[in-house]
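Re: [help] complex structure
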Amino acid sequence: MDEKEKSPVGFLLLIPALMVLLLLYMYPLIRAIALSFTDEMGNFTLANYNKSFDLYARDILYTLGITLVTVGVTFVISILIASYLRFKQWKFLDYMYRLPLFIPFLIVGHAMRIFLAQHGTMNSLLTRIFRIEELPGYSGLWVGLVATFVWVMVPFSTLIILGAFKALDDSYIEAAQNLGSSKWRIIKDILIPLARPSIMVAMVLTFVRTISSITIPLMVGPNNPNMITVDMMFRVNYFSDWRVANALGVISYLIVMVLAIYYLRFMVTERGGLKR
Amino acid sequence: MAILETRNLKKYYGRVRALDDVSIDVDAGELLAVIGPSGSGKTTFLRSIAGFVKLDAGHVYIEGKDITELPPEKRDVSMFFQNYALWPHMTVFDNVAYGLKLRKMPKEEIEKRVHDVLKLLDIEELVDRKPSQLSGGQQQRVALARAIVVKPKVLLLDEPLSNLDAKIRLRIRFEIKALQQKLNLPTVYVTHDQEEALSIADKVAVMHEGKVLQLGTPEEVYKSPVNFFVADFIGTNCVLTLKVLDGRVKIGNKIFEVSSKETARMVVRSDEAEVLEARAEPGKDGLRIPGEIKGKLYMGSKYRYEIRIEESEDALFVNSGESFKIGEKITVFVPDGSYFVY
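Output below.
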């Protein structure tokens, strides 16, 4: 037994995965952090961070805001679709909600830009059908950006949540219904609490995918304020300023890390609280 | 007037008839046991009263009001689920209090009623536990508490004892019966265990392939079964296949007229049958079949015999306190009323 544990084969099998992790994740991360704390001479400095906050404080808050609103709206829509499909069979919706999964960000961005523009598809439909005044174009506004993000994020998060809902035994739902619970109360009291771990996963993934997206804010978002990813690209493309770009990158890392810690702590208490 | 009335309930799943013209009433304080093999429609019957099955035809009335079209949440019937269906994220208190919270009762009232019902079921000390910290028997009680705390008009029990081990099951039968009488609730009790049904029910409905074959008191169903299926399903029995000659069947000291052409079947309540010495004369009237001991099992307080008889290829299995030898010629005595020929 001891011999087996000391055998190097296990470690050897792990090496490819470990190398990928070290080369493609740890090394760039450490390099980015290092670069963000040095000046051109290679000396330690906080100047990159000062510059980041001076120039982009508003953009950082804006990014955080857009991401949180996206997560919130995605949560509501995903719960609604997943609940509907948990209670009722509707093949059409079941296929339709997944469709955006298979459409590349670039195409979504372009489609949304046309759809949401002042004289775009949405407005021309609205004015023709409801005979109302043309709404302002939402492409280039934060509303348009959030709408596009939600369109992209909902399928994946619904997929995860619906999976969790469907895994719950019917009798949990029927027992609540039997005692007089409406569908809304069942969603709130039974479905959401019992599927909480999966919902958390869906929301964390939505958060990370939104905050790290560049194509969509570049195509649909306003020119000012911008999302951090766009600022990073500008720093590199127009100023060749890798140091501030890296500082901004580290800042987004930290934001995601706060979430990751919160999530891990939740998972630990959840596992510890339930005897499984 | 009965509190729960069901009229001509029909439910088809494709060609399968889950409910085929079922009409049963349950009075106040009455316990109706619905029994049948799996697939007989007994659970569909229960779920149609709760509103989880949409009926193809028929009506369900509670206190004279037609509830056929009402959704489950508006029916005021409580269902006990076979797997208990306790919500794992809620404590015992929250599980039991849920129905009361939905009824928007004041907090003190909810606390009082939950504690009363937990006391009634003798599980007060579990109030803050989660379902995963309870034994099967405790979960069963919590599920029962959750169902009765809302004071429903009708109580529906779906195989309430099937997940408990045999010893607890016997004890809890008494408790359920006592509780049901105390609450005076019309109750529908679905089970596949005929012994459980007979012992606990005021009225028994035997179902098969969606039909109610017989509806009556446990004594009626046991003593005068309407057909072979009911006779065989209820009680502990042996079935003998017998040859028919000129519309008649001869077995032991009796001859029966039967309608079947080639073979008839006899159901013998083996609990009531006795094994006697070959020439013994029982003091009572009954069926005496000569036979031979083929096998013998020691069961503690008694022996179980496998007995061959001339009239049938099927063996009789009868228990007796007396010891006989294998190969010995004996007489099986079955008192009148404990055998049925179809």
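The first helix of chain A runs from residue 2 to 6.
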